[in-house]
């Protein structure tokens, strides 16, 4: 059974970063599993959030968010400065979602949905309603359809990841009418079975 959790210990975050390096190396985003990922420098424990998934006691997937209130706080500021500053003006406090990794041979959509749902629930608990993320152009449709994201930036080369192509997406939880419908099932599942701490109940 898959279990999703919020990383609260330094050791948990260390394993999550190891998963990211392994996954990024396999995708050709870094040249060696031992390479440091420049993006990780932004994810300080006191201003970021990391969630992970365990399967049979082994960590298999992770995703993180880093909070931003000013220019230079997050990696995407380097590539989309104007768009990111506009999002900060709109939301006040913004979260850039990144460092996603799934090291299984066949990742499952349902597991990704659970992992992102837990991240979203924690963001809402902290009253963070604006999210930015850089994704591969081929993944834009997926995030638009299932998570209500909107493309707000053109395709660019991500210099920190071997010039991989990236597109900027944003999500406004305040105007996403389907958010309670899409996420309440997952949040209630976490509350009943998985989360070792209380999560917010989403309602209309």
Sheet with most strands: 8 strands, mixed
Query: Based on DSSP secondary structure assignment, what is the total number of beta strands?
Result: 8
Q: How many separate helices?
A: 5
Strand content: 25-35%
Provide the CATH top-level class: Alpha Beta
- From the N-terminal CA to the C-terminal CA, the straight-line distance is 31 Å
CATH superfamily: Gcn5-related N-acetyltransferase (GNAT)
* Rg, alpha carbons: 16 Å
Q: pLDDT average, as an integer?
A: 83
How many structural domains does the protein architecture include?
A: 1
What does the overall shape look like? globular
Uncertain parts: 184-204
By CATH, the architecture is named 3-Layer(aba) Sandwich
Structural class: alpha+beta
Helix content: 25-40%
Under CATH, the topology can be stated as: Aminopeptidase
Quaternary form: single chain
SSE run = EHEEHEHEHEEEH
Describe the structure.
The protein is of the alpha+beta class and 204 residues long. 34% of the residues lie in helices and 26% in strands. Strands 1, 2, 3, 4, 5, 6, 7 and 8 form an 8-stranded mixed beta sheet that branches. It has one domain: Gcn5-related N-acetyltransferase (GNAT) (Aminopeptidase, 3-Layer(aba) Sandwich).
């Amino acid at each position: 059974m898959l279990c999703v959790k919020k990383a609260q210990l330094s050791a948990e975050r260390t394993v999550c970063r190891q998963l990211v390096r392994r996954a990024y190396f396999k995708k050709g985003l870094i040249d060696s599993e031992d390479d440091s990922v420049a993006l990780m420098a932004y994810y300080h424990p006191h201003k970021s959030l990391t969630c992970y998934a365990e399967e049979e006691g082994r960590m298999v997937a992770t995703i993180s968010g880093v909070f931003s209130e000013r220019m230079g706080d997050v990696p995407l500021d380097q590539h989309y400065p104007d768009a990111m500053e506009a999002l900060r003006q709109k939301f006040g406090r913004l979260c850039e979602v990144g460092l996603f990794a799934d090291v299984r041979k066949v990742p499952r959509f349902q597991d990704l949905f659970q992992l992102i749902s837990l991240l979203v629930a924690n963001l809402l608990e902290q009253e963070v309603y604006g999210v930015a993320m850089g994704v591969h152009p081929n993944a834009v449709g997926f995030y638009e359809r299932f998570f209500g994201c909107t493309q707000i930036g053109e395709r660019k080369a991500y210099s920190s990841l071997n010039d991989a192509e990236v597109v900027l997406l944003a999500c406004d939880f305040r105007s996403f009418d389907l958010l309670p419908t899409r996420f309440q099932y997952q949040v209630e599942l976490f509350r009943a079975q998985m989360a070792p701490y209380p999560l917010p109940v989403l309602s209309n």
